[in-house]
Design goal:
Helix content is 38%, strand content 17%. It is an alpha/beta fold. It has one domain: Alpha-Beta Complex (Amidase signature (AS) enzymes). A hairpin with a 6-residue loop joins strand 14 and strand 15. The chain is globular, with a radius of gyration of 20 Å. It starts with a helix and ends in a 7-residue tail after the last helix.
Length: 437
């Protein structure tokens, strides 16, 4: 089914669609694509019961919409393992606030989606259940940490999945899997009850098939509308002159340049802008994230270090060594960067840049090639994404037409209201393949 989530819910409310059948189809699709590892817990019985309740009531803005929830977000009665052996037997006793809102709106939760362990990784390869695989090529990564949410939407399991984003964890897998990944502005979606990675940087987000679906889900789960969209299309878009985010693999550079051409041809005003030095964002991000992650895991690490995935264990060991003075200074630096970035964003409707400078590498690849040479996969995946978590501005990844593997275009805007309007226009123009109208 290619209906939007708004259309699905409307069809259920009007009695034209059967929520039980919708849930059944989603469960079957999850089983068909089990080799991807995108769904780590499938609960067909609870899904059927929830769908039967929706069928009786026919209410809710998300009535009957099949939903997957990233496994660091607790769903009452389902495993709450966060992808780790540390909590191998734990079951959630209550819903996170965002899950409660989804249920109240009539969404039907079919299960839990794969996360990089404790959301502390960007490849989607480290989890007690094994790696998550890219639907476009199962020998390649999905990106992470909201790996299963992106893969499941891309594979047609569900039209909507919940994720979290601390340094790009919604946008990275969205770009590599070819779906929309939306991280709204800080505090738009509730974090209450979600297992934290870094409270100063954490955001909740959604993964969908379209911008319209992402906007609708955010408005429903955020508890209110955004008001009239602004600005009118075509927008004024900032094109970065910072060198770091434009050090790209050839296939990404080609897709990005083609997108800028389509935007210009459609009437967008493209202006060069420069954000603060990239190294300052990296410093602020790491010096906030590492101490906060170490504090989150203080009760279990290092006592259970042997139960952590090797890469996550290494990160937590390094995190414990960050001195307190750097953490304090990082808060001041983040405030300065937020103000400086906000000034740039006030001059345009959004800034555009590639979401990730590479397409999906092989599962075990440690390095990938960009114009500047061979570099760490992890550094490349995170490079263009840390900034918006430091500042809290909304940042979305939209799929671009590309030869071969998916490529994402990232938009960063001053606020959600502006993002909604710009993203819809950009999707309509830049998302077209050659010959489409």
């Amino acid at each position: 089914m290619n209906d939007s989530i708004r259309e699905i819910a409307q069809g259920v409310r009007e009695g034209r669609l059967d929520p039980v059948e919708l849930a059944y189809v989603a469960v079957c699709r999850a089983l068909e694509t089990a080799n991807l590892g995108a769904v780590v817990h499938l609960d067909a019985d609870r899904a059927r019961q929830a769908a039967e309740k929706v069928a009786r009531e026919r209410e809710g803005a998300l009535a009957g919409v099949p939903l997957l929830v990233k496994e660091i977000i607790p769903v009452a009665g389902m495993p709450y393992r966060c992808g780790s052996r540390v909590f191998a037997d734990r079951v959630a006793t209550a819903d996170a606030e965002i899950v409660w809102r989804a249920r109240a709106a009539g969404a039907v939760i079919i299960g839990l989606s794969h996360t990089h362990e404790f959301a502390y990784g960007c490849t989607g390869t480290s989890n007690a259940e094994g790696p998550c695989r890219n639907p476009r090529d199962p020998a390649r990564i999905t990106g992470g940490s909201s790996s299963g949410s992106a893969a499941a939407v891309a594979a047609g399991v569900v039209p909507l999945a919940l994720g979290t984003d601390t340094a790009g964890s919604v946008r990275i897998p969205a770009a590599l899997c070819g779906v929309v990944g939306a991280k709204p502005a800080r505090h738009t979606l509730p974090l209450d009850g979600i297992f934290p990675l870094s409270p100063s940087l954490d955001h909740a987000g959604v993964l969908t098939r379209s911008v319209a679906d992402a906007r609708y889900a955010i408005e429903v789960l955020g508890g209110g509308g955004s008001g009239p969209p602004e600005p009118p299309a075509p927008p004024r878009l900032g094109v970065l002159t910072n060198p770091e985010p434009l050090d790209l693999a050839a296939e990404v550079a080609a897709a990005y340049d083609a997108a800028l051409g389509r935007l210009t041809d459609a009437g967008a005003e493209l202006v060069e802008v420069r954000l603060p030095e990239w190294s300052r964002f990296v410093t602020a991000s790491l010096d906030l994230q590492r101490p906060e992650a170490a504090a989150v895991h203080a009760a279990t690490f290092p006592a259970q270090a042997f139960n952590y995935q090797p890469d996550v264990r290494e990160r937590l060991e390094a995190a414990a060594d960050v001195p307190g003075w750097r953490y304090v200074l990082a808060h001041d630096l983040a405030a300065t960067l937020t103000a400086e970035t906000g000034h740039v964003l006030s001059t345009v409707d959004a800034v555009v840049l590639p979401t990730v400078p590479i397409s999906a590498p092989a599962l075990l690849a440690a390095e990938a090639q960009v114009a500047g040479g061979w570099q760490s996969v992890r550094d490349l995946l995170l490079r263009n994404n840390r900034m918006a978590n430091v500042t809290g501005h909304p940042a979305w990844s939209l799929p671009l037409p590309a030869r071969g593997l998916p490529v994402g275009l990232q938009l960063v805007a001053a606020d959600d209201r502006r993002m909604f309007a710009v993203a819809e226009w950009v999707e309509r123009v830049a998302g077209q393949r050659e010959g489409e109208q």
